[in-house]
Amino acid sequence: RPEWVQQEESEPGIHACEHEADAIERGMLAQYVLGRRVIQVEVEDGGTLDSGVINAVYNAETQLMGLGVIEETPEDISIRCSVDPEDFTLDNLLERLENTGSTMRGEAVKALAHGNPDLAQRALNRERQANKIFVLLLRLIFTAYQNPNLCRAVGLDSSFPLIGYRSVAKNLELTADNAEDIAEIVASADEMPDVESSTIRRIREFTEQIDELTAMAVRSVVERDYDLTIRCRHLFGEISDREQEILNDLEELPNEDLLQIREVLVSLQHTAEYAMRNAEIAANLALNEESEHVQIE
Fold this sequence. Notes:
It is built from 10 helices and 4 strands. Strands 1-2-4-3 form a 4-stranded mixed beta sheet, with helices on one face. It starts with 12 loop residues before the first strand and ends in an 11-residue tail after the last helix. It is flat. It is 63% helix and 7% strand. It is an alpha+beta fold.
């Protein structure tokens, strides 16, 4: 944690002539995450920006919250981020990211149950919003790290929890990716797997329990509630073998159908494991504060 704060803001310039368009996009993403307010993409030595670079800039703009082009010439483009750390709290963004992933997961599994590619596509369309929230979380975490005075602005009493929040955010982003994987299976399938209704019911029940687990784990983080982390462990213990149980009870299926169902179950199991990682982080944060469970002298 830095002992001092750099007051003067830097304005990075990304040299377009040295990078391909996709590298420009990644460079803008990195500068956004690092908390820059103004980013310039420029060509030196009298050159002009080619269309690929310009498209990359505008594509990055659509992916990042609060970003907008403020000036454009043939030689450079200036982009400004209007996000103010005081507009958001990290706790609220974690809950929004968890809710987005849960919605995607519910739509994807429902699409599987009803053989509805349109519903799967709806889940896929939400992935961009999940990524926006995740990258905004990274920006606020890095900003608060570089300037501890901003910790209260993003809802923290100190910078101590930041490293834990970074891990929680990544785990939630990965759970959204798991939901995207399930939706992709349905959206890209020529035919839905022909499985018994009882199997589909068990998969949906498994999903509901995972929804409860992921939401409870995030609550335990934002509330610093050690008792909730214990409840997470108990729930995870109840469902930790559910993936294998459903696979073992599957009826005879063509290999392709079997692989699709297995991929869905693996994605759900991974989601449960990411939730437990968040519960472990929550336990560490909770036990760093005085409570009925611990006395700190």
